[in-house]
Amino acid sequence: MLLREAEVASPWPPWVGDPQRLRGEIAIRGIQGLVWWSLAIGLCVLLATRPIGVTYDDTNYLAAFDPDFEHFRSWWLFLIEEPGWQLLTVILSPLRDELGYRVVLLLSPAAFILAANKITGGRWLAVGWWSWLIIAALILDRGLGVGLYVAAIRQGLATSLFLLLVALRAPVVAAALLAGTVHTSFLVVAGIVGLVQFGARDPRIAAAVTGAIALYGVLLALGVAASPFGSLDLGRRTTTYELASGLNLLGYTALIIQYGGTLLLARDTRSPWLGGTLVFAAAGAALSIVNAGFVRIFLSLNAFMLMALAQSPPKRRVLAIGYWFAVMVAATLWADRNAVSARDSWIGLWSLVLGR
Fold it and tell me: 109-160 pLDDT, tens per residue?
């Protein structure tokens, strides 16, 4: 029997799904459980055994298993150059480059699936509608499946680590800071979840914070406001990404349509993931105006959106999820039309992953 929600939910659900709002038998022994776990494990194995060289960064990831700590000029650079990732590569280096890399490729999506299932369903081994939503998002959402777990491996690992720590009920800010040692973007996420945890739990406050950050982003684009980084040394990012202001009207309009529209439809949710997604989207847009490298953090934003959708009220959930996937698929197909190579498109990347 499928799990069903209790009619009375807690007044403020935590970052982790509340087990008390579910009742019924945990569906892990029936056909649904067997099919879902087979599909989840199969997807992780597929991502772990894909051909190497599918993405532009595969060679760099393999080379990372021979870490170099001598180039750091200060503690700040050591912090933002992902010491957690470098420590992991040291630990896995005895497995040799490719095997160590494939261990990461296997464990990263596996941790995401387990943690997301716990957060959205309230129990580790519960299999319900939310479990299928996770698999659908990993396959269809360009920002999750082929984004975080094929192309942006370090960010995918950081996202999985963050969700896993949250699922284990670690302090959410500490979880983001620890994930930030694997990928720098989560140092920004730490500030975002801190705002939501301690000052923006009320959706109205979250909306106000979002508006203030969005206004700051527009002022940045117009050259009126100063960069939040000032003269701070960003290490390799200073040369990798051009530090320049600009306003990509089409990109930010699409952001408002996809994320804003979805969150508006799910607006009554009391999940902190809603406020986190709102502030995250605004902060990501503002930072991407300053430094093009921050566009990457939108990949992890999709994970926040997935958690928010799963914890949205039943009466609004179907419409919000339907809208999210419809706009996401349309945007993906539109982007694939302008793809330069197979590595730049959703269909192309999945075809390369499936290629043997």
Answer: 999 999 999 998 877 877 888 899 999 999 998 888 888 999 889 999 999 9
Helices (H) and strands (E) in the chain, counts: 18, 2
Decide if 84 contacts 104 (C-beta within 8 A).
no
Determine the longest span between alpha carbons in the chain, in angstroms: 60
Give the pLDDT band (50/70/90) at residue 46. very high
d(CA 265, CA 321) in angstroms, rounded, equals 9
Tell me the residue type at 295: V
Fill in the amino acid letter for 176.
A
Q: Identify whether the C-beta of residue 193 lies closer than 8 Å to the C-beta of residue 172.
A: yes
Q: CA–CA separation, 321 vs 340, rounded Å?
A: 30
Nearest to 23 by CA among 8, 7, 5, 1: 5
Among 97, 111, 95, 110, residue whose Cα is nearest residue 41: 110
Q: Name the one residue in this structure whose structure tokens are 């801190």.
A: 194
Contacts for 59 with CB less than 8 Å, ≥ 6 apart: 53
What is the distance between the alpha carbons of residues 305 and 277, in angstroms, rounded to a whole number?
6
Distance CA 223, CA 243 (A): 13
Question: Tokens in use for 76?
Answer: 């700040």
Query: What is the phi/psi pair of residue 153, to 5°?
Result: -65, -45
CB-CB neighbours of 69 under 10 Å: 11
CA 94 – CA 147 distance, rounded (Å): 28
- Measured at the CA of 103, the angle between CA 97 and CA 109, to 5 degrees, comes to 135
DSSP letters spanning 161-208: HHHHHHHTT--HHHHHHHHHTT-THHHHHHHHHHHHHHT--SHHHHHH
List, for residues 288-315, the tens digit of each pLDDT value. 777 666 677 888 899 999 999 988 888 8
pTM of the model: 0.83
User: Tell me, what DSSP letter sits at residue 266?
Assistant: T
Side-chain half-sphere of 101: how many Cα atoms within 13 Å?
A: 20
